[in-house]
Design a protein that fits this description.
Blueprint: H1 7-13, H2 32-42, E1 50-53, E2 57-65, E3 74-82, H3 88-91, E4 95-103, E5 108-119, E6 123-129, E7 136-137, H4 143-152, H5 164-176, H6 192-195, H7 204-207, H8 218-225, E8 231-240, H9 243-256, H10 258-261, E9 266-273, E10 276-286, H11 289-299, E11 307-312
Antiparallel strand pairs: 1-2, 2-3, 3-4, 4-5, 5-6, 5-7, 8-10, 8-11, 9-10
Helix pairs in contact: 2-5
């Protein structure tokens, strides 16, 4: 089992360090071009969305919701991927999907839900850390400082953006290279003689085993009655002053991206932000955080926000 706490303190306190080489399950080298190609080929992170690269992990922004007023925080969704095995314990897993709020003027952040995975690219065993109510000040020259500058500064230099086209080409080439066709085995007629000796008398024995015990039938029924989890997942695309604006945003998104939104319902749920009554616009029917992350990736660069929410029965 891996730890689910501690990342917020780690990301805030950890300064950028020189890149280091990793083993075979990670990027083959620590240069930006190699890391960008590895991300494009092995993960669902777009290199152009990477906010910062450290010696042990990369952080990418996959969703951003702008506030209604300058005083309110910006809500962002981040993807994290470990690129050096020594950092698994410090980060708590191999990959994560997390949401947070950032106050640009006051330079503070507050963590929302964080889904941590034991495997790369949001795979393997997962755990969820609960949202925090504490606002933390963001120190300069840290990972979270990079995130805040990417969120708040329009002129921020995204570290892997220049390598994104080449990385996408490498990933495309890796997907389209066909596997070598297996050589046709030489025709072997000699073994046909032993095949002529299949003993056909035992054939009645399988039929004479009416031992498929029907008493085992109730076992699957009991398994089906136990749900794997009561959690459901949704993606928040924005916070709205009224239901009409929320429905208009959903209608526009459904019209622009009919394939992406197919099979998803939409709902609004009330929230209070600094004493103001708003409505959270939620896209429903995600079976797992991985599905939500893919949805966020598809929305990257659009006007819509993308924050993963857990809805429990």
């Amino acid at each position: 089992m891996f730890r689910v706490s501690f990342l917020c303190a780690t990301l805030v306190a950890l300064s950028i360090a020189p890149l280091a080489l990793a083993d075979t399950d990670y990027p083959a080298a620590g240069d930006p071009a190699t890391i960008a190609a590895w991300l494009a080929e092995r993960t669902n992170i777009k290199p152009s969305a990477v906010v910062t690269v450290t010696s042990g992990f990369v952080v990418a922004m996959v969703g951003k919701t702008m506030p209604l007023t300058p005083e309110e925080p910006v809500r962002v969704t981040l993807r994290e991927e470990v690129i050096a095995p020594a950092f698994i314990d410090a980060v708590g897993g191999r990959s994560s999907l997390m949401s947070m709020e950032i106050q640009c003027e006051e330079r503070r952040l507050r963590m929302d839900e964080r889904h941590i995975y034991s495997g790369p690219n949001l795979s393997g065993e997962s755990e969820v850390s609960e949202p925090s109510t504490e606002w933390l000040r963001i120190p300069e020259d840290t990972v979270m400082d990079d995130v805040a500058r990417a969120v708040c500064d329009p002129g921020y230099a995204w570290p892997l953006q220049a390598f994104a086209p080449a990385a996408a080409a490498v990933a495309m080439a890796a997907q389209t290279v066909p596997d070598p066709a297996p050589e046709a085995p030489a025709a072997q007629t000699a073994p046909m003689a032993p095949v002529a000796a299949p003993v056909l008398e035992p054939a009645p024995q399988p039929a004479a085993t009416p031992a498929p015990v029907i008493a085992e039938a109730p076992a699957p029924e009991r398994q089906a009655e136990t749900p794997e989890t009561s959690a459901q997942y949704a993606i928040q695309i924005g916070a709205y002053r009224n239901a009409a604006r929320a429905e208009a945003a959903w209608k526009a998104l459904s019209t622009e991206r009919p394939v992406l939104t197919q099979g998803h319902d939409f709902d609004v749920r009330p929230i209070k932000v600094k004493g103001k009554d708003l409505l959270r616009g939620l896209v429903l029917n995600f079976k797992s955080p991985e599905e939500g992350a893919a949805f966020c990736t598809a929305l990257a660069g659009t006007e819509y926000g993308c924050i993963l929410r857990t809805i429990r029965d």
